[in-house]
């Protein structure tokens, strides 16, 4: 079997490429997007066409969905297989999602429920996985100095999302454009510009207050996303109009504005607020270490150590830390992020926010631990820091569970089974 793997440098691509190779698949790689982030859809289509015409491919594969690849495969009658590992993915709103060549796998059941009606026979649910073999090599090679260097009571590895928050960037640009000296004058400026269609649309004080209130409500609830259904048309319209780069694909099958405002703008703002607030609160009572490349200036009591290399340093953090904290961004509504699988695959103890899909794969309190409020999070940190044997046993159970049932080898075998069954029908 020969396939084309179209790469853009997702962190899970090397693991999946290795598994395909181990399965005896001949993998041709197209990696121009790793080196050139300005590749156009046309260039993508041309490259994929060259590969298809040069080889007898069983399918073209990518992490996340590329409409240009789908259209190319539809035209040349070659299956296009993709596995979504992110949320949101605006490209899923492309009309290319309807193509019969697609074999699309989505890791989040809420995401699957949302998009599968567009092309029911070609869209499937498939959770993420981890590369236990890779993590074993890194962990077994750890030295006493590694455990000393990366050890901590509570560790968090990840972005603070402050640099990824489009909503904040819009407010910052907007604030710099106003010269009103008092709140009253600023309110008058907002009102005037709101009524002047020639003025660049601002985000009104009303919408800012609405978003702040929605975020505060969502912060109190885990396992359910309140934001999309509670957005008003005014809030959606103002945020979409304020960003000149708002995703407005000409090739879409529906109104994307509500989904994108909820997930790309408010969802990312929520992630930034939640992570900063949670880390600051925990740091008042516990020894908290953060590994991130984000700005940490607003985290005075957190031990901030910069970013870590995903393949070489991250597994050492997960293994050496007493408690590994995970905070899933809310655009991942029900599913398990890659971080969940990787922490467990490294033999780390995981304490994560509750997601409704967790009980489908793990036993809470046996394989991992969850929290549904900051009060519960603090209580469980306090408990597990003082119950080492129980903590270690849970970490071992979680590792054994993913090693038996949730590796990339197992997941890609499940994917290939679906592809085979679809081909036979």
CATH architecture of the largest domain: 3-Layer(aba) Sandwich
Percentage of residues in helical conformation = 40-55%
Structural class: alpha/beta
Mean pLDDT: 93
Largest sheet data: 6 strands, parallel
Number of domains: 3
Strand neighbour order, sheet with most strands: 2-1-3-4-5-6
Radius of gyration: 23 Å
Q: Report the β-strand fraction as a percent range.
A: 5-15%
- Give the termini separation: 20 Å
Low-confidence sequence ranges: 189-199
Q: Can you tell me the CATH topology of the largest domain?
A: Rossmann fold
Task: Count every helix, treating DSSP H or I runs of 4 or more residues as helices.
Answer: 19
Q: Please, what is the CATH homologous superfamily of the largest domain? A: Glycogen Phosphorylase B
């Amino acid at each position: 079997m020969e396939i084309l793997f179209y790469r853009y440098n997702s962190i899970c691509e090397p693991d999946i490429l290795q598994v395909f190779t181990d399965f005896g698949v001949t993998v041709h790689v197209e990696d121009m997007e790793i080196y050139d982030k300005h590749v156009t859809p046309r260039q993508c289509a041309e490259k994929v066409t060259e590969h298809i015409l040069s080889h007898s491919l069983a399918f073209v594969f990518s992490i996340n969905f590329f409409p240009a690849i789908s259209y190319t495969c539809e035209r040349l009658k070659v299956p296009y297989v993709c596995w979504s590992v992110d949320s949101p993915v605006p490209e899923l709103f492309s009309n290319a999602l309807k193509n019969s060549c697609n074999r699309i796998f989505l890791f989040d059941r809420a995401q699957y429920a949302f998009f599968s009606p567009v092309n029911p026979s070609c869209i499937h649910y498939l959770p993420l996985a981890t590369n236990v073999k890779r993590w074993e090599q890194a962990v077994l090679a750890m030295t006493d100095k590694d455990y000393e260097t990366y050890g901590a009571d509570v560790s968090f590895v990840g972005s603070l999302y402050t640099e990824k928050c489009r909503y904040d960037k819009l407010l910052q640009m907007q604030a710099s454009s106003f010269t009103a000296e008092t709140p009253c004058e600023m309110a008058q400026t907002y009102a005037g510009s709101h009524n002047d269609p020639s003025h660049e649309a601002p985000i009104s004080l009303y919408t800012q207050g609405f978003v702040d209130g929605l975020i505060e409500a969502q912060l109190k609830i885990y396992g359910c996303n309140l934001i999309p259904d509670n957005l008003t048309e005014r809030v959606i319209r103002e945020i979409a109009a304020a960003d000149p780069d708002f995703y407005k694909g000409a090739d879409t099958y529906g109104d994307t504005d509500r989904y994108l405002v909820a997930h790309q703008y408010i969802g990312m703002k929520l992630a930034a607020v939640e992570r900063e607030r949670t880390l600051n609160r925990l740091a008042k009572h516990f020894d908290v270490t953060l590994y991130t490349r984000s700005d940490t200036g607003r985290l005075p009591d957190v031990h901030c150590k910069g970013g870590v290399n995903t393949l070489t340093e991250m597994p050492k953090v997960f293994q050496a830390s007493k408690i590994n904290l995970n905070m899933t961004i809310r655009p991942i509504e029900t599913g398990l992020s890659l971080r969940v699988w990787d922490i467990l695959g490294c033999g780390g103890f995981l304490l994560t926010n509750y997601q409704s899909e967790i009980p489908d794969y793990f036993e809470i309190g046996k394989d991992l631990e969850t929290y549904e409020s900051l009060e519960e999070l603090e209580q469980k940190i306090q408990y597990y820091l003082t119950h080492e044997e129980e903590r270690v046993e849970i970490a071992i159970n979680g590792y054994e569970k993913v090693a038996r049932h949730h590796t990339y080898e197992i997941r890609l075998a499940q994917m290939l089974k679906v592809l085979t069954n679809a081909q036979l029908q």
